[in-house]
Amino acid sequence: MEIQQDLKDGYENEKIGFEENDSHVDGSESSDTDDSEKEREEHYALERRVVELRKELSKSPNAYNTHVELISCLKKLGELDQLQHARESMHAIYPLTEELWLDWLRDEIKLSLSDEDKKKVESLFLRATGDYLSIDIWVEYIQFCLAGMDIGGAEALEKIRTVMEEAIRHGGLHVVKGGLLWDSYRDFEMAIYQSTKAKTETENINQAKKITHLFNRQLSVPLLDMERTWKEYNDWLEILDQKVETHVKASYDKAKIQLEKISPLEDTLLIAVENDDKAAVYRTYLDLEMNEIKDPSRIQALFERVVAEIPLYDAFWMDYCKYVDRQFKTAETTFAVFRRAVRNCPWNGPIWASYIFAAERYEKEDSFISGLVQNAFVAGLASAADLLAVWLGFIEYLVRKCKSDDSEQIVQLREAFTRATEHLHQSFDIEGDPECILLQYWAYFEAKKLNNMPKARELWRQIMGQGHGKSAQWWLARIQFERAHANDVTEVRKLFVKSINAVTSLDWPELIVKQWLQFEREEGDLQTMDNAQLRCDARMEKVKKERESKIVKDLDTGKGRKRGKTEENHDSVSIPPKKAKIGHNSASTTKSDTGNTTETRTNASQPVKPITSPQPIADPCRHANTVFLSNLDFNISEEDIRSTMSSSGTITDIRLVRDYKQRSKGFCYVEFSSSDEVKEALKRDREPLKGRPMFISPSEPDSALKHPAFKYQSTLEKKKLFVKGLASTTTKEDLENLFSKFGILKDVRLATFRTGISKGIAYVEFEDEVSATMAMNKTDGTTFQDRVLTVALSNPPPRYDKKTTDREELSLGGGARERKTQLSFVPISILRQAKSSTMPPPPPPLGAQKSNADFRSMLLNKK
C-alpha cells in the first residue's frame, strides 16, 4: 500500500509540476484556476463513468469492451488497487491482447522494488506469454531479467539463459520478428565474453564457443535480414581466426532457399488489412509449410502466429488442435492448445468435442470430462450443430466405457441420451437434430449392446414420428435396422406393409416395392410372395392414378397461367384488329334514327389506346441519379414521397407509376440532383412509410435487371447475430437498448412483412466479433418482453439463383442435368402409340377448337 501510495503521490507531484510550468508560461492566475477546474471536472466525469461501467459489468460480466474501458478509466484515475482487480477480472474471462499485457506489465515493473515483487512480475510474465505469442512481451521479459538481476552470479546467469532459451523456443522461428530474440541472446553472451577476457583462457574459449553455437543455430533458421547475421558471423570468425564450417554454410543456404519461398507470403501479410485477407494468406502459408517444408517446429510456430493475429477464427484453432494432437502426441502440449482454443472460441462445438476425445485418449478422469461438457454448455454454443457435436462427443465417450453388465453405467448413459435429446429439442425444436443422429445412435446401442429390441423399436417410432413417416428412404433405413439386429421376418413384413401405404406417390414407393419383393424372394414362400405382389400391385395402381390426376391438374393450372399471361400482354400491347367473320355472332348491323346510316360492330373492334404510366427516361445520366421505390402504400401521394425523401437531397422529379384508372401501383421513381444524394437515399432501404417498409434500390434502365437482389450475406457472419422469438410490438429502439451494452452497434435490422408487421426476427450487427459473441452468450435463452429469445450467429442457408434452378438441377454425380418436365409422366401407352405412328397426324380443321375436357380425354386415351 505504501508503494502504491508513493506512486500515486508521484503522479500528483508530476501533475502539480506540469501545472506550475504552465502557470509560469502563461503568467496568469485565472488560467491556472481554469485548468484546475477543468481537471476536476474530468476527474469527476471519470469517476462517474467508472460507476456506470461497474453497473454494466454487474449485469453483463462478459462485456469485453466494457472491461477495456473500465481499465482505461481506472488507469487515468490512478486507482492502482482497483486497476489490478479490474485486470484480473478481465483475464479470468478472456485472454488479453499484447497491448493490454504490456500496459499491465510495465505498471507492475514500476512497483517492483523488493525481491518478492519481482517474483510476482515474473509470474505475470509467464501468464502473459501463455495467452498468445508476442515477441514484444518476450523482449520486455528479457529486459526485465537483465535489469533486475546480478549478472555476476552464476545462478543469475543460468536463470537469464533459461529465459532466453524459452524466448527462442517460442518465438525464435518467427520470420519477421524472431531475429530480435536471437540478437538479444547473442548480445547477452557477447557481454559476458567481454567481461571474461581478463579471466582464464579456458573460460574465454568456452564463452566463444557459446557465441559461435548461437550463430550456427540462428543461421539455420529462415529469418529476415539473414545477410546481416551472416556478415556478423564472418566478422566474428575473423576475430577468432577461424573459418566457416561446411555444414554451417549448407544450413545457411538451405534457410535462404526457404526464405525465398515464403518471402512473397510475408510481403502479402505486411500489406493485408482485413482479417479475411490475412486468413487466406495464412492458409496458403500453412499449406506450404505442411506439404513442402514439413518441419513440425516451424508449423507449430506458424500456427502460433496465426492464432495470435486472428484469434477468433475457429477454423485455425481446430486445425492447430488436430495437428498438435496427432504430431506431438503428448498430453501436456495437446491440452495446453485445447485450453487456449476453447478460451478464444467457446462457441465452437467441434473443438469441445475434440477436446473430450483427447481427454479420453489420455485417460483423464470422469470428472474432468464431465467438467468439459458443462463448461461447453455454459460458454454459449453458437448453433444446433455445435450443441449436437458436444453431446455426441460426450455420449461416444460414455458408450465406449459402458459395459453391458454394469447397470449403473447403463443408467448413466440412458440419462445422457435423454438429456441430450431434450436439450436439443428445447433449444432448437426439430432443427436441433433433423437427421435424428442421437436417436439412431441410441437405438443402435439398445439393440447391439443391450439386446433390447423393444426399446430400439420404440426409439425408431419416435424417429418416424418426427416428419419422416412419408419418406421411402427412412422406411428402408428402419427396415434395414430391423433386419440387421433382430431379423424377425414377421416384424419386417409388418414394416413393409406399413411403409408401402405410408410413402406418398411423389416419394418413389417403387423403392419399397423392389425391396419388399426381394425380401420375399429371400425369406418368404409362395403365399407370402403372392400376398406381397398383390399388395404392391394394388398400391402402385393407386400411385399411378394419383400421378395422372396430378398431371391433369398441373396441365390445367399451366394453361390458366398461360392464358392469364396472354391477356395481360394484350392490355399493354396494341394488337391489330382481326378480320370480321361472317355470321350472326360475329357482326350486327343497326340503322340510325334517320335510316341513312348503318354501323357495323365486330368482335375484333379497334383497340383503345391504354393510359400509359410514367416511365423512367432512358438517359444513363438520369438513371444514375434515380432510385426505385417499391412496396409503397397504394393510397400514397407524390407529396408524401417528396416530404419523406427530401431529407436525402434535392428531388428533381418524382414519377409515381399508376394504372389505367390513375391509381398507384405501389412503386415509383425518385430522381435526385446528384449521385451522392442517391447513395444517401439507398441507406434508407426498408425505412417505414405509412406503416410499410420502403424497398429502395438503384434504378436499372434494363427491365431485365429489375429482379430483386439479395444484398445480405448468406454465409456465417461472426459480427452479426440472428435473434428470433421477438414480440410483434418490439421496435428497433428496443433492440438497440438491449444489445448496445455489449458493444458498439453497427446496424440493427428488424425483419418485417411487406405490410410492415414484424416477423419476430431481427439481425443485430456489432463493430467487432468479441462483442457479438458476448451478446449472444448473455442474451440467448433470456426473457425479453415476455418472450424467450433465441440468439445465434447469423448463418443463413445458401441462396440459389432462381434462373439456374428453374432450368437445371444438381444430379447425384454433382453436375447439372435437365429438369424433367411434366410430360415425363405421360402414360406409357400414349408414348408407345406416338412412337409407333410413322406419319404425322393430319392438322385439325381451322374452325375446330378443343376444350380442356377434349385434351383430358386425349391424354388419358379415352374414346
From TrEMBL:
Give me the stretches of Basic and acidic residues compositional bias.
1-27, 547-571, 799-818
Pfam families xref list: RRM_1 (PF00076), Suf (PF05843)
Q: Which InterPro entries does the annotation name? A: HAT, Nucleotide-bd_a/b_plait_sf, RBD_domain_sf, RRM_dom, SART3_RRM1, Suf, TPR-like_helical_dom_sf
Q: Where is the composition biased (Polar residues)?
A: 585-606
- Which top-rank group of organisms is this from? Eukaryota
Q: Which SUPFAM superfamilies match?
A: RNA-binding domain, RBD, TPR-like
Q: Is the keyword RNA-binding in the record?
A: yes
Q: What is this protein called?
A: RRM domain-containing protein
